[in-house]
Design a protein that fits this description.
Helix content of chain A: over 70%
Distance between the termini of chain A: 46 Å
Structural class of chain A: mainly alpha
Strand content of chain B: 15-25%
Strand content of chain A: under 5%
Largest sheet of chain A: none
Shape of chain B: globular
Radius of gyration of chain B: 18 Å
Largest interface: A-B, 20 and 19 residues
Number of helices of chain B: 7
Order of helices and strands of chain B: EEEHEEHHHEHEHEEH
Helix content of chain B: 25-40%
Oligomer: heterodimer
Distance between the termini of chain B: 38 Å
Strand order of the largest sheet of chain B: 5-6-7-3-8-9
Structural class of chain B: alpha/beta
CATH architecture of chain A: Orthogonal Bundle
Chain lengths: 277, 257
């Protein structure tokens, strides 16, 4: 072996009759890290956008320059108008999502651990889950009036069913051996639920928060477009009607930032609650 | 305290799993149950500890369990069954939390068993941070924390590599020689059974019946000696002959589950 290794590699396989080097054929599809490329791509797109508008290739009424959108955003913030909209939206979102999620986790837990509840609840959930909840807003407006209650109810309903399904599926996925183990130590039922079933289902429940927050954001904006004085959705629709596309896009930027903030908060929450993983 | 098993039959649907199982585990005796896969060993163990209802038959205590025992029949599982979201310490604490113990008494018990299993340095670790062997040590510590009269061990070493298995087996033996508690030890590994058990119960394959009860007449502390090794090898061969045919059949079976 040693004398073969000692041969100068420049000679190649041809210099060693009978020895054929095995060609490398592994290593496909490995994700490599390219730091900073994301930022560069982002800046490039923004620059292209800015230049296209400034050079007159794009009509600024349909697509205002990036800098104009930022300026509009700044103006909205400085005048205080933005905060009125943001406050209204955040309030609806927070109340609606919390109500829907709380109710969803409770009902999902019931369906997950109690077969009678599953027998009754599962067909109902399956029937109502596919309905786009925004379709029920007119009905809620008839029942609850045009004010906050109907919007909050639509948002809550929008995340309720998804949360129910995610919660009982997460409970179904809790390893049965852990429950058997607890029973073999005579751990009482309520403690099995609190110490084994709930923490075991938590990863699944937290994962569904990502889905339900984005669903709620969609419903929030749609509901505000249908009828609200304040709210990011109404800011967008009003300025759309006035062809003030810079303000319209400023609203869209706010939604994007809002989405990123929610995602970041959820990531931190998961990291903290699921640090055992 | 003895464990008396009387006329256990069990069926899953049409499948007869266990038939007419009858034996007694004497005080501080280690009974190994061996048999080919699918002979109902684990099912039998679940029935012994009351986490599976047999189709017929009963399991009794003969005599009162020791007063200090919080859970006379305590399992040690093949897959360890640790709660991944609890630290080592909190996992060992779990079976104590619903008993009327003060916080200090609980902590004292936990600390004590962690010392006895050599886990004191790992008490703040989560299960995923531990090797398989250490995880099973946590399982053992958790079982010891409730002061069991009889340990029910379901292939406790099968999920571990060979070296870890040898190490843990020595630990088990040291533990038994010290604590003298009873155990029912289910395994498909003949050497394990012969190294640890006072008596080996050989089950036949489906339906599981007792084919043979083999007394291992060498004290556990002397089983490493050459004479003992020769005798154990004889027993090993005799038992292997008993189960070899069935093990072959078991291996060739297509699963319908």
């Amino acid at each position: 072996m040693a004398n073969i290794d000692a041969l100068p590699s420049a000679l190649g396989a041809t210099a060693r009759p009978g020895l054929n080097e095995i060609p490398f054929r592994g290593g496909g599809f490995v994700v490599k890290s390219h730091k900073g490329v994301g930022v560069i791509g982002f800046i490039l797109i923004l620059a292209l956008w800015e230049i296209s508008v400034r050079a007159g290739w794009i009509n600024p009424i349909f697509l205002p320059a990036a800098s104009d959108v930022l300026a509009a955003l700044w103006k909205l913030a400085a005048s205080g108008e933005l905060w009125l909209h943001l406050q209204a939206s955040l309030m609806r979102f927070a109340i609606g999502w919390s109500l829907g999620t709380t109710a969803g986790v409770i009902v999902g837990f019931g369906i997950g651990v109690w077969s009678l509840a599953r027998g009754i609840g599962l067909p109902l959930v399956s029937a109502l889950f596919p309905v786009p909840k925004i379709a029920l807003l007119p009905l809620f407006i008839l029942w609850l009036g045009i004010g906050e209650a109907s919007k909050v109810a639509t948002i809550a309903l929008g995340c309720f069913f998804t949360t129910v399904i995610a919660t009982f599926s997460a409970i179904d996925a809790v390893p049965r051996n852990l429950i058997r183990m607890s029973q073999s130590f005579n751990v009482p039922t309520y403690a099995v639920l609190a110490k084994v079933v709930l923490p075991g289902a938590l990863p699944g429940i937290l994962a569904c928060f990502r889905i339900t927050t984005s669903i709620c954001l969609i419903i929030l904006v749609s509901a505000e477009m249908i009828g609200a004085e304040y709210g990011i959705g109404s800011l967008i629709i009003i300025n759309g009607n006035l062809m003030q596309t810079d303000k319209l896009l400023a609203g869209v930027v706010v939604l994007s930032v809002l989405g990123i903030c929610i995602g970041y908060t959820l990531t931190r929450l998961e990291r903290w609650l699921l640090r055992w993983r | 305290m003895k464990l008396v098993v009387e006329g256990i039959h069990h069926r899953f649907g049409d499948l007869n799993v266990l038939e007419d199982i009858q034996f007694t585990v004497a005080e501080s005796e280690i009974l190994a149950i061996i048999g080919p896969s699918g002979c109902g060993k684990s099912t039998l163990l679940s029935i012994l500890g009351g986490i599976l209802q047999p189709s017929a038959g009963k399991v009794y205590f003969d005599g009162a369990p020791p007063a200090a025992s919080l859970n006379p029949l305590t399992y040690i599982f093949q897959d360890f069954s640790l709660l991944p979201w609890r630290t080592v310490e909190a996992n060992v604490m779990l079976p104590l939390e619903h008993h009327a113990l003060t916080r200090e008494a609980m902590q004292a018990r936990v600390d004590d068993v962690l010392v006895r299993t050599g886990l004191s340095d790992f008490k703040a670790a989560f299960p995923k941070q531990l090797s398989g062997g250490m995880r099973q040590r946590v399982g053992i510590a958790r079982a010891l924390a409730v002061n069991p009269a009889i340990l029910l061990m379901d292939e406790p070493l099968s999920a571990l590599d060979a070296q870890t298995r040898d190490l843990l087996m020595e630990d088990f033996l040291a533990l038994w020689l010290r604590e003298r508690m009873g155990a029912v030890y289910v395994t498909h590994n003949l050497s394990e059974a012969l190294y640890l058990a006072d008596r080996v119960c050989v089950l036949s394959r489906r339906p599981g019946r007792i084919r043979e009860m083999v007394q291992v007449d060498i004290p556990q502390s002397e089983r490493k000696s050459p004479q003992a090794q020769a005798r154990l090898a004889e027993l090993h061969d005799a038992m292997w002959k008993l189960i070899k045919g069935e093990a072959q059949q078991a291996e060739r079976e297509i699963s319908h589950g």
